[in-house]
Specification:
Length: 145
């Protein structure tokens, strides 16, 4: 019995999984762009979670920055917190092609409380549309759905 157990443990130990991360040079241009677009959305989510307006709008083209004001940001913060709670996590769902742009979508998890004070969780979608302006990736649309 001990032999069988040792053989099984040895097999598990020596045949473990290994993941190999590609270096930046090995990624194709399309993969680098997709990774950058995803990173942009996650920076925006973290900025929204921490209520950092400047960080939240950093990827929006200049004209859009003038239209989306700190007051609008604060109102959106209040509305989402009142209806959903506070952001606790998110997971990337995917990237949709809208050539020449892309829509990226995340499931965002919120924590709030019931009237009785019990902790509950809710989820909503967060979406951004990313495209190029003067060779730079920019966020044209963003919304919680």
């Amino acid at each position: 019995m001990k032999k069988v157990l040792l053989i099984l443990l040895g097999a598990i130990f020596f045949t473990g999984c290994a993941t190999v991360r590609q270096s930046e040079e090995e990624l194709s241009e399309a993969e680098r762009i997709a990774a950058r677009e995803q990173q942009m959305g996650e920076v925006m989510l973290e900025a929204f979670r921490t209520k950092n307006f400047e960080q939240y709008i950093q990827f929006i083209p200049r004209g859009g920055r003038q239209e989306y004001t700190p007051e609008m940001f604060n109102n959106q913060q209040r509305e989402i917190q009142a209806s959903m709670g506070e952001i606790v996590s998110w997971r990337f769902l995917g990237r949709l092609e809208l050539e020449p742009a892309h829509r990226l979508v995340w499931a965002v998890r919120f924590k709030s409380r019931t009237i009785r004070g019990e902790e509950i969780h809710k989820e909503a979608l967060f979406s951004i549309v990313v495209g190029r302006v003067d060779e730079n990736l920019r966020v044209f649309l963003f919304a919680f759905i």
